[in-house]
Amino acid sequence: MTHAPALLVIDMQNALAAIAHRADETVAVIAGLRARARAAGVPVITVQHRGGDLEPGTEGWRIVPELAPADGETVIAKTSADSFLDTGLDAALRALGTTELLVTGFATEICVDTTARQALSRRYDLVLVADGHTTSVREPGSGPYAAPDASVAHHNEIFRHLDFPGRSVRVLAAADVDFSPPSAGTSRG
After folding, report:
1. Can you give the residue range of the structural domain that contains 162?
2. How many domains in the chain?
3. CATH value at residue 153
4. What are the DSSP E strand ranges found in 95-188?
5. How far apart are CA 135 and CA 19, in angstroms?
């Protein structure tokens, strides 16, 4: 089977980065991964939420400058936590021949989790980039939510143990992502 990855960058928009835990670090990780993907000829797809306070054309709606899509890159508009729901994401991935989706972005427990699970259900192999997703800043005692670092760690661990028959599910740090094609007879881990 042909290995054809694509990098997905979810909701890394100005207004969301402003409320994101470890925003600068996460943006830097994704930017480095994106540069490596581009250098290897791996498609980069940006997902951009609209609705609520994220109105097209506003500064908050725009993708953070460090991750702004290059000319010709696919940008998918979405209105729900699921980047596939009522969007052209699946069609774009199929047109590219994508077999594996590397998921990054905001927010860990909402759009990242939902999209990653939908990718598996749509028969894509999955890499959740362990240090390439984040959630909102939360003050201690602000409610029943898990602390941001705990939430990210929890989701990474859940995906390490998620079993989808016939699908490869991996959780890798960005530094461990290898965009080179696998050698014949070797396993990617």
Report:
1. 5-138+145-176
2. 1
3. 3.40.50.850
4. 100-106, 125-134, 169-172
5. 8
